[in-house]
């Protein structure tokens, strides 16, 4: 019998969670699965619970929340025998989308019994912070940092910050040195380091990324004008942003980033103030996940 722990962050993400315990009870077959539900009580609690459950031999720990909750849970499950399950309740749901996890809660719960189990890669920033979708620096990291400090939440606040910062944002010069010997040195609006293909919301910043190839897909977007925005936005969601003349890409297992000063960075959507010099690497085959059986990852 499969042992499953659901970790619910009651305040993360955007989806309603009140009906989830009832859905779990209705959908999971008691002959196939024994489950428990634990609610987080503070920042970092999901990470602690996941680590404990992995040592107890739980088969699947399910992150119920947004991308931040998924990152917390997954970070404690790397190189264990416990698989990550996702019940997506966030605004982006980047890893869930890449793995083919349904956004409908009932279907996502059913997948825990009927899905496939695969082993995927993950990334590290300066040997410390782990990411599973992407991390990056530049304009989007700055907006995420400002948004996290804002007194109000929601899409309107995010858009207001993005518009305000867009008028004053000055692109920095970055130097990227890959373990392949390839280098990129340029001013950049955004630099993204992709393990998975997308940020979330089907915004494909690294459209050719595979989450199982042990390779980091780096996308650098040069400074853009107001006239560049519509086509770049279209290509981001069409999966063709690498075709834009403002975009430069490289593939590697490890890359160092040099810039003039420290600044904001995001990993799986979570912002933090990062040092000026960074090393980003991919660790191959470190995390078990539950995926859709028909989804190529």
Automatic annotation (TrEMBL):
Keywords: ATP-binding, Kinase, Lipid biosynthesis, Lipid metabolism, Magnesium, Metal-binding, Nucleotide-binding, Phospholipid biosynthesis, Phospholipid metabolism, Transferase
Entry-linked NCBIfam families: YegS/Rv2252/BmrU family lipid kinase
Cofactor(s) needed: Mg(2+)
DAGKc domain mapped to chain residues: 1-129
Full protein name: DAGKc domain-containing protein
GO terms for MF: ATP binding; kinase activity; metal ion binding
UniProt cross-references to InterPro entries, sorted A to Z: ATP-NAD_kinase_N (IPR017438), Diacylglycerol/lipid_kinase (IPR005218), Diacylglycerol_kinase_cat_dom (IPR001206), Lipid_Phosphate_FormReg (IPR050187), NAD/diacylglycerol_kinase_sf (IPR016064), YegS/DAGK_C (IPR045540)
One Pfam family recorded for the sequence: YegS_C
Species name: Bacteroides coprosuis DSM 18011
A GO cellular-component term linked to this record: plasma membrane
Phylogenetic lineage: Bacteria, Pseudomonadati, Bacteroidota, Bacteroidia, Bacteroidales
Cross-referenced SMART domains: DAGKc
């Amino acid at each position: 019998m499969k042992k499953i722990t659901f970790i619910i962050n009651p305040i993360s993400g955007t989806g309603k969670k009140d009906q989830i315990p009832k859905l779990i009870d209705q959908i999971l077959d008691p002959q196939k699965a024994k489950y428990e539900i634990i609610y987080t009580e503070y920042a970092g609690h999901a990470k602690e619970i996941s680590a404990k459950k992995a040592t107890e031999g739980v088969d699947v720990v399910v992150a119920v929340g947004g991308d931040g909750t998924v990152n917390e849970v997954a970070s404690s499950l790397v190189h264990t025998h416990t698989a990550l399950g996702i019940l997506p309740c966030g605004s982006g749901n980047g890893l869930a989308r890449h793995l083919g996890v349904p956004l409908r809660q009932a279907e996502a719960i059913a997948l825990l019994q009927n899905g496939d189990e695969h082993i995927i890669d993950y990334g590290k920033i300066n040997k410390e912070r782990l990411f599973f979708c992407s991390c990056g620096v530049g304009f989007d990291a700055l907006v995420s940092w400002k948004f996290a400090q804002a007194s109000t939440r929601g899409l309107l606040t995010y858009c207001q910050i993005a518009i305000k910062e867009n008028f004053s944002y000055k692109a920095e010069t970055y130097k990227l040195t890959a373990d392949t010997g390839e280098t990129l040195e340029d001013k950049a609006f955004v630099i993204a380091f992709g393990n998975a293909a997308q940020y979330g919301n089907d915004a494909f910043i690294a459209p050719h990324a595979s989450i199982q190839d042990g390779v980091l897909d780096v996308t650098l977007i040069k400074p853009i004008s107001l006239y560049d925005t519509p086509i770049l936005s279209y290509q981001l969601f069409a999966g063709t942003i690498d075709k834009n003349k403002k975009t430069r890409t490289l593939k590697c297992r490890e890359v160092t980033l040099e810039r003039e000063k420290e600044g904001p960075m995001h990993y799986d959507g979570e912002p933090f103030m990062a040092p000026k010099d960074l090393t980003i690497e991919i660790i191959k085959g470190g995390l078990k996940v539950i995926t859709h059986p028909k989804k190529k990852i």
